[in-house]
Amino acid sequence: MERTLVFLKPDAVRRALVGDIILRFERKGFSIVGLKMVQLSEEFVRGHYAQHRGKDFYEPLVRYVVSGPVVAMVLEGKNAVSVVRKMMGETFGCDSAPGTIRGDLALSNRFNLIHGSDTVETAEREVRAFFSEDELVRYDEDATRWIYDQSASEPV
């Protein structure tokens, strides 16, 4: 199973959307193997978004993400990275399709509620940056047998 990092940004926390967004992932069938609320430091956020340094939205993005607590989670499931990205919607809420998190809950081009890893390699790095190994929990979930056909060597 694949893992991905998701964090709900300060606007999601302040608008009391955390439960609704987590519920979407649980209903889809993802297992939550790590979950915590944290206030990210400016240094951490600058490193996290370093690939955007020098772009016109970089400084406002840093200010936005450090403006309040975030809820970070590690989701596990088949094709977790790509499925979560689809569930999130486009970067800008106004461009996102109804039924996606941003399409249903966001309008802004800046306050876009959620971050999700964009590749499996990025997910591995981001999970390690946000969570220590002892903060990740492995557990058997009876519902999993009703989410995937497990009669083959790999869940389908």
3D architecture notes:
The chain is an alpha+beta fold. It has a single domain, classed as Alpha-Beta Plaits. The chain has seven helices and four strands; from the N terminus they run βααβααβααβα. The chain has a four-stranded antiparallel sheet with strand order 2-3-1-4. The radius of gyration is 16 Å and the shape is globular. The model has no long low-confidence stretch (mean pLDDT 94).
Question: How would you describe this structure in keywords?
Answer:
alpha+beta; 4-stranded antiparallel beta sheet; globular
Are there runs of 5+ residues with pLDDT below 50, and where?
none
| Percentage beta strand | 15-25%
CATH fold naming: Alpha-Beta Plaits
Q: Estimate the mean pLDDT confidence.
A: 94
Summary, kept brief:
By secondary structure, this protein is an alpha+beta fold. The protein has seven helices and four strands.
Question: Could you outline the blueprint of secondary structure elements for this entry?
Answer:
Layout (H helix, E strand, L loop, with lengths): L1 E7 L1 H5 L3 H11 L2 E8 L3 H7 L9 H8 L4 E8 L2 H9 L12 H5 L8 E3 L3 H11 L26
Antiparallel strand pairs: 1-3, 1-4, 2-3
